[in-house]
Amino acid sequence: MDDVRDKMIGFGDDEEEIIEEIGINRKPTIPSLRQRNSQLNALESMHHNEEQEKMDEIRSVLKDRRKGKPKKGVAFDAEMVPSGGSGDGLRKRGGGLLSSSSGATGGEDGQETFGDSYMVVEFSEEASSESVQWIIDKIRGKKVDGGAELLVRKEPLTKETQSLVLHISATQMKFLEIADDMGFMKRSKTGIIRNFNVACLDDFFYDENMALEDILTPADRQIIIKYALENIRAAEHEHHIPGTKLYHGQSIIQAAQHKEIITNFYSLHCKPRLRKLRHVWIKPTKHQPIDEIRDYFGESVGMYFSFLGFYTYALVVPTVLGLLQMVLSEETETVPFFCIFYVWMKVFLELWKRKSSAHAYRWG
Prior knowledge:
Protein name: Anoctamin
Domain Anoctamin transmembrane: 293-364
Largest sheet: 5 strands, antiparallel
Main location: membrane
Order of helices and strands: HHEEHEEHEEHEEHEHHHHH
Family: Belongs to the anoctamin family.
Structural class: alpha+beta
Strand content: 5-15%
Number of helices: 11
Shape: elongated
Oligomer: single chain
Keywords: Membrane, Transmembrane, Transmembrane helix
């Protein structure tokens, strides 16, 4: 036992010598922690400056691309992904859908043009001003500070509604950046559906007459805004919305909804687009504009109406056979009809599988 004790003591002495030689401290001291934090802050600042330079260069390329004048000598590389909240403004919404704005702000300098409103956030009348302002700052805030870098417009209060209503949008560059982060599936020049990548932006202009705004459909933009809002999460030092506790990584918007600080969270219709869609859709003599429906409402709704149309046309066969069976046959001769009906059902399901697979391939 004495020999074992001596070996254990010797091993401990050797361990201390090794630790001293390689310069490892068992417990970090306060000065070392402060030094490490200052280094991390410096690295974050350098990274933010690099992102700002890349963002400025991408903004210049996008502007030239919209004007139809490719900029010579500037090419996207794998790391040129925009991260700022500034850029070209979106098209203005027509038809007077929304109330006049009071202070469309967002991004870096608060001077971006507020375009279409893609999401509405309505606060409770009982919500404190500190909580509301804190959430607005998170929506508008910089990405490095945990914000979403979105544009915010406040709807004026009326006698009927005293609750605060915010309209949320984003710059064109921010839409493309978030679509890249989400791994959006979009059609490329070659006709292949693949992950959207800002670094290969020109690959997604599959039509010569296509504008920059046409890459993302209205449904895509609503999904992007919803994703960006729901992914505003509490940082380590943020333990509460004023009056509401948070835990690290919790979705701030979902927490505010749970505590009824936010009472409504929904997207808006665009009347000009709906009128245009109505003109080509709600007519019995025309086929359904499935691609236009998908662009406006999204893939799931587009697939639903495609199935309804396909199923309606397919019902012509059993309808004709049923009428013939009812007129020409006796009551005891219904078995052949049901056999034919069963065959029709199997054929219909197989044909729908092919059609739905074609939609899934084209839409991604």
